[in-house]
Amino acid sequence: MPPTDRIRDHAGQGATTVAAHRARRRARADQARQLADLLRHQLLAGGFPDGTLPHETTLAADYRATRNTVRQALDLLRAEGLVERLPGVGTVVVAQKYPHGLDRLMGLAETLHEHGRVTNEVRTMGPAPAPAPVAERLHIPAGADVLYIERLRRLNGIPLSLDLTYIPLDIGTALLGADLENTDVFRLLEAITGRRLGHAEITLEAVNADAHSAAVLEAPRGAAVLMLERLTHLADGRPVDLEFIRFRGDRITMSGLLHRSV
Fold it and tell me: N or C, fewer C-beta in 10 Å, the chain?
């Protein structure tokens, strides 16, 4: 075989070896992600009541994975701030995500009442001209005043969400003297109007925290937050509450019950 052919053959073997190595790494990363998803569900559902995960060897046997895959999965959960490795103890759960249902219309304190006390820090509150998209969605004239409220919401003192709220001023004026620090806006709206809330349109997406939101939520700048946009209507159909809620993604999990209809 001519020298040039031998060089080409050797280079081809090297390329094959590199490609195979990369494929193995991708497969291991995929398996680690799958295992992390399973473990995340377990720890969020209280599957480790003593707060300690089984030993890596046990996890590897239970999930038919290699020790390296288990370590990578635990690294992913550590990066999310859910677990930590303690010398002499093992891998322990260090953070809890709180469940927020998407199949019932409730305020945050109503939703999380089993997990502790929700308090609200009212950072900004007062009349303001409604931006055009807000006026359109609340069915009020463009430029009309609305009550604008910005609240930092905590669960047991831990920052959980930053809520920006727009309410038509004919209803919102009565909120100016209300106890917004300890009461959900939903309860206040029903008390003020004498009517029940009916339904809400929601959109949920992940966004990066801007500098202001990150500082208020005590989250890393640029960290992913869950943005819930919710337009709530009274039972008669009138829209009365437009909210943009930024949840710390490492402290909340969204869930719901869906039925298939054809």
Answer: C
Q: Which tokens go with 223?
A: 């960290």
pLDDT in tens, 24-55: 777 778 899 999 999 988 887 788 888 899 99
Instruction: Say if residues 153 and 183 touch (Cβ distance below 8 Å).
Output: no
Decide if 80 contacts 93 (C-beta within 8 A).
no
Helix (H) or strand (E) holding 248: strand 239-248
Rg (CA), the chain: 25
* H helices, E strands: number in the chain: 8, 10
Residue that the structure tokens 């303690």 belong to? 86
Q: Is 245 exposed, middle or buried (0-12, 13-18, 19+ CB in 10 A)?
A: buried
- Backbone angles phi and psi of 204, in degrees to 5: -125, 130
Question: What stretch of H or E contains 217?
Answer: helix 211-217
